[in-house]
Write a structure and sequence with these properties.
Number of strands: 12
Number of helices: 19
Distance between the termini: 36 Å
Structural class: alpha+beta
Shape: elongated
Largest sheet: 4 strands, mixed
Strand content: 15-25%
Oligomer: single chain
Radius of gyration: 26 Å
């Protein structure tokens, strides 16, 4: 059973009580209707989304530049996230990082706006400035790291990857009662290992690979259905060998049921290839009906039998008469929550081919699954906020009906129309990230890419990478094809 905490209710009690003053009711009804649009965020930004999924990033960039309101309003974090992504896809790493840096700073400086919180209590959460999901905050640093790799700035890339797990610790410190399943990022450790490896730092590469493997085993397999890639296992054994960690190497040989065969680094360097596959989920809305039951200890319990949810609510001296009355009057309530709609990618798997050898692309980060699980965790934590929002609306309706039946009727309609979920999200993220490592030949390497669709058909593409020396090249390739709405 999930207990509703009192702190949020008591902090907002004074503001809610003011909303019950009769002379303010009409103004708030107007506000209610202003926020009663039915379209989701995806539908409201359909032209931009269409340009992105079509790979027309020049058009997508122009559409963002024309949207001055979004650049300065409550959705400006999303604006800068999209600008950073579009510049990334256009191959402008410096511009991209500038926009991502702005988004990151806005998130770091984000404070609760009391005015928008009060409006949100009687309308819906979209009245607030956008608060990114935890994994969206983390993906900023992933893109910044890739931009630094494109600029051949290994230290800059490492700084961004180190930030990821620091941020995750900070984000999860906010949730003492209901910890996220997304507490550590295996791919961040893996990416860190790849960068240390490319820089010639075998010891730190081993530590990062070992940490990545541990998180895949303990967190990712269970929570997100992603197992440790075979390439990671090979790199872990190779870095253990290079560091002279004989005991660790034997341990991993036994665990992986293999015998490690060492080969010298490729004379003409190697390619680390990242595949960003498809598009991540978009938010829509669903509603849950709750029935009220009284309990012997004076608590009111709101329950939903279908999903097995039960939220007890306790009155105490901190609640005003208006709050007590509005909650006591509730018999049934409908609460709107966001939900993710998947956009399954066209391609199920892919590989690179060079010198008649195939290098499979192994999934390392399932962004779609992380999104689904973290939103589910957040929904449970935030029911208390949603209950307060519904109770505040009902309180306004109750006060209005005491003065005028028609006014109360109008407020009731407005309440129904404005019980909406926040459907905003960063919708240009990929569905998943896969990778592989390929040894290169001297000169230009024309490397075929093979992608297999879910129905078994194949499509091919090609990249050209110059080999030479013992340098590691990093390359990012995205396929946009996925189901759209």
């Amino acid at each position: 059973m999930i207990h509703v905490h009192h702190s949020y209710f008591s902090r907002n009690a004074a503001r809610i009580h003011k909303l019950y003053e009769p002379y303010k009711l009409f103004g708030f009804i107007i506000v209610l209707f202003l926020f009663s649009g039915c379209a989701t965020w995806y539908q409201r930004t359909a032209e931009f989304q269409s340009a992105v999924t079509a790979g027309n990033f020049e058009k997508a960039n122009k559409l963002l530049d024309k949207d001055k309101k979004q650049a300065t309003g409550k959705n400006r974090i999303l604006y800068y996230l999209n600008k950073g992504y579009v510049e990334f896809m256009l191959g402008h790493p410096q511009n991209s990082n500038q926009y991502f840096e702005t988004a990151e700073n806005l998130i770091d400086e984000q404070h609760r706006n009391l005015g928008s919180e009060a409006v949100a209590l009687i309308t819906n959460p979209e009245a607030r400035p956008y608060h990114p999901e935890d994994f969206e905050v983390i993906m900023i640093n992933f893109y910044k790291a890739l931009n630094y790799l494109d600029l051949n700035d290994m230290e800059g890339a490492l700084v961004e990857v180190r930030k990821i797990n620091i941020k995750l610790y900070q984000l999860n410190d906010k949730y003492p009662d209901h910890k996220n399943r997304y507490q550590r990022d295996a791919f961040a450790h893996l990416l860190m290992g790849l960068i240390y490896d490319a820089s010639g730092d075998a010891n730190n590469a081993f530590i990062a690979y070992r940490n990545a493997y541990e998180v895949y085993q303990s967190d990712y397999t269970k929570n997100f259905g992603v197992q440790a890639p075979e390439q990671l296992k090979q790199d872990l054994m190779r870095s253990a060998y290079n560091c002279g960690f004989t005991a660790e190497l034997k341990q991993y040989e036994k665990e992986f049921n293999t015998t490690y065969k060492h080969t010298p680094p490729p004379a003409n360097g190697q390619l680390v290839f990242f595949w960003l596959n498809g598009m991540g989920p978009v938010k829509a809305e669903w509603s849950i009906n709750f029935a009220k039951q009284k309990r012997g200890d004076g608590a009111i319990v709101f329950h939903n039998d279908e999903f097995g949810f039960a939220f007890p609510f306790f009155f105490d001296s901190r609640y005003s008469d208006a709050e007590r009355q509005s909650i006591a009057n509730l018999q049934m309530l409908r609460v709107a929550f966001p939900k993710y709609m998947e956009r399954p990618p066209l391609y199920a798997n892919g590989s690179l081919v060079l010198d008649a050898k195939t290098y499979p692309l192994e999934i390392a980060e399932n962004i779609n699954e992380i999104a689904l699980k973290t939103l589910r965790d957040r929904m449970v934590r935030e029911f208390s906020t949603s209950l307060l929002r519904v109770a505040a609306k009902k309180g306004i309706e109750y006060t209005a009906r005491k003065q005028n039946e028609w006014l109360g009727f109008a407020v009731g309609i407005a309440n129904s129309l404005t019980e909406k979920a926040d459907t905003r999200n960063w919708q240009t993220l990929p569905y998943s990230i896969s990778y592989t490592r390929v040894p290169l030949n001297a000169g230009i390497n024309n490397i075929p890419l093979q992608f297999t669709t879910r129905n078994g058909s194949r499509n091919t593409d090609q990249i050209s990478i110059e080999g030479g020396g013992r340098k590691t090249r990093f390359h990012v390739f995205q396929t946009m094809d996925s189901r759209q709405f």
